[in-house]
Design brief:
- The protein is mainly alpha-helical.
- It has one domain.
- The chain contains eight helices and two strands, in the order ααββαααααα.
- It has a two-stranded antiparallel ribbon.
- Helix 1 crosses helix 4.
- The longest helix is centred in the middle third of the chain and has 38 residues.
- It is globular and about 60 Å long.
Length: 274
Amino acid sequence: MMGPSHALSGAAVWLAGSWALDYFAGYEQSPLAVAIGTTVCAGGALLPDLDLSGKVTRNQGGATVARTFGVFSLFIAEVVEKVSLGIYTATKLSKDPRRNNGHRTFTHTLPFAALVGWGTTTLATSYGKWAVVGIIFFMAGLALRGLFDEWAERAGWVIITISAAAIAWFTAANLPGERGYPMLGAAVAVGCVVHLFGDMITKNGVPILWPIPLNRRMWRMIGIPDGIAVQVGGKVETVVLRTVFTVISVLAVAAMFAPHVLRQLNLDALSSGP
């Protein structure tokens, strides 16, 4: 799937999950908390594609996530791609093909999702509010790049960086106390897992079972049959799936906050009555 679809799916899953926690478990979140979680999950849904690098010195190519912060994120993507290729080469078995790039290898596995989720939680709980702000800055940039792809393409990485910094500043000004916000790690991990499932419905699949060896292959790509696979960038993805993700997001937000708004309006009406 393309970057915008990944980001939108991450946002939809987090909003739907937040509604489910509210409705079934009574876990109520403030609008700011929901917005932060949604932003981080949307950004996390782009993280696995950091293994698709471009041309760093020319500020060209790469996946959506790799172009977020210009040459800086392209350089990070270059490093991640080489590390992923190294992990693939070191662990491949006799029937795994030789590769010259690391795309759809280590960052497209469940251990990677668990690792970045754990790392995010550790940062947030160990270093407090300012670590949280840094995480939000990075993830907000990814979310902006994914959710508003056409605008981001026109605006360029400098505007994205400034916008992400503004979101981080607003968050810093409104976050209560010195909480660690461990849910940020969950949002990142969920976003990564959503990305994996999104790629599994395309033709190439992902090595989601790694590191479990199967028939002398460590890196078996798992996906749905080609006959029903979604074409990357096709109408099913860009029209049908994105519409579904958008509808889910809107309904989840309405279900979470509309009752509170209506209740407050009724209270205001009663208090201003004769």
